[in-house]
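Re: the multi-chain job from yesterday

Posting the exact lines I submitted so nobody has to dig through the queue logs.
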Amino acid sequence: GAGVSQSPSNKVTEKGKDVELRCDPISGHTALYWYRQSLGQGLEFLIYFQGNSAPDKSGLPSDRFSAERTGGSVSTLTIQRTQQEDSAVYLCASSPETGTSGRIGGDTQYFGPGTRLTVL
Amino acid sequence: SQQGEEDPQALSIQEGENATMNCSYKTSINNLQWYRQNSGRGLVHLILIRSNEREKHSGRLRVTLDTSKKSSSLLITASRAADTASYFCATDAGNSGGSNYKLTFGKGTLLTVNP
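And the result, structure tokens for all chains:
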């Protein structure tokens, strides 16, 4: 079946502009995650959505970053007034509400191909 | 500080050889996962090992977990040029009071398999 998709695949923007990154999770997956990966680094957790629960925004680096998830499916990550340090690959992942363990979360996350953001 | 840290940072081997990568972590976990990433883009899940498991196999992959040492290893046997990629371990927060969905990734091991 279809995997996680993200758009655009690449985005070049000027410092100070706003950008929107989109994620389409796997159909039926209720959990959705955003991560950021800077050059040569591991992944940095940004935000987590689970069903109708309040999202965990604890990883967002500043108030310029926000995300929403409409209808429990598609998610948009918005970065306002972009800065050069925002340049990174932004990865989205989704997972089923409960995995084989029966617990919410804590199981395999399926990643999209990412959006490479370059802020000039 | 990093929850998961891979070692070595880079590994270069010949096709057919085995590759071993290690991961150390700091807090207790529910499970540990290994992911693979090609060309800095999307990650592919390889294998998940739970805290009550010590060893797991999947094809040419073998993962071990030692919770007493807070470490894991990933062994790729009979490596192929197509195995060239970055490999990351990821842990959840386990019983340390953190969420068990928030994965923490290390910086990865860059594996190069030479034909």
